[in-house]
Amino acid sequence: MDVFRVTTDRGTFDVPFEMPELGTVVPYERLHRQGPPGFAISAAYSHNRFDNPFHDRDVKRYEDRGRRWYGEITHDSIEDRDPEGDPSRGEGWIPVIYKTNAGRADEILVRGWAPRPGFPVPVIDNREGHRFFQRYTLLPEKTIPFENRAEAERIFLQFDLPVVELSGFYRPDNYKDGKRFVGRDFGPFLGDDGRFGVYADWLPSFSGFDWVASRPAYTEHNIIGEIDLRNKQEIGTK
Q1: Whole-model pTM?
Q2: Number of helical (H) and strand (E) elements in the chain, helices listed first
Q3: 45 CA to centre of own chain
Q4: Cys-Cys link to 171, which of 73, 83, 156, 200 (CB 3.0-4.6 A)?
Q5: N- to C-terminal Cα distance for the chain?
Q6: Element (H, E) at 79
Q7: How far apart are alpha carbons 30 and 27 in whole angstroms?
């Protein structure tokens, strides 16, 4: 199985290229249980300014499906938390517990803040140059309201990133009704809301749709590309 390897100071994560269960109905709980962490998927998709074979395989999957939307569930979950005196990041941000690789031995628990829905845009990072998401999560560092698309495009161009990759982030108003899974979709036809979306609101109890899958657990794998996020070193691709 082709994988993209993401190395961090919290471990190494291999992200499969394929989602073989796409087209079948699988309960969200099972998809969540087998999937890789969201930040590793994002790192694979966006590395080298979105110019890489993992990204291209996602695009090809969309084309091969007759330009039909598809979604995937990660092994991340998100739930409500008491901020306990933790100062807010600003108006519209809500306090959450985000679990990357939830329930696994290498689980990463982040006491973070979820911004308002909108376009995730990059922010300067002294170690990585720029980043979209809070470390080890799919919680954006900054979002621009959907009605301000021109501003989001300006920021992409400022970081020399392709505007076509502008994408969306979505969450409920709060998580007081329970835990949700974090998922991702690919649907360029959606237009104004971007090329793909991060959805922090997938219901764990849902029985599934045939256009939602996850990247499977793996035993044997062929490393097609890799990146070391400990120092943002691009190791390359085959």
Answers
A1: 0.92
A2: 4, 15
A3: 9
A4: 200
A5: 14
A6: strand 70-80
A7: 6
Q: Which amino acid is at 139?
A: L
The token pair that represents 166 in the structure block: 């502008």
In angstroms, the Cα distances linking 59 to 18, 53, 62, 185, 192 are: 12, 10, 5, 12, 18
Residue 74 has pLDDT above 50, yes or no: yes
Cα atoms found within 13 Å of the Cα of residue 230, Cβ hemisphere only: 11
User: CA 112, 52, 98: angle at the middle one, nearest 5?
Assistant: 15
Lowest mean pLDDT among 75-79, 119-123, 231-235: 231-235
Q: Kindly state the helix (H) or strand (E) to which residue 228 belongs, with its residue range.
A: strand 222-228
Closest C-alpha among 77, 94, 39 to residue 201: 77
Average pLDDT on 72-85 reads: 94
Give the separation between CA 21 and CA 27, rounded to whole angstroms. Answer: 11
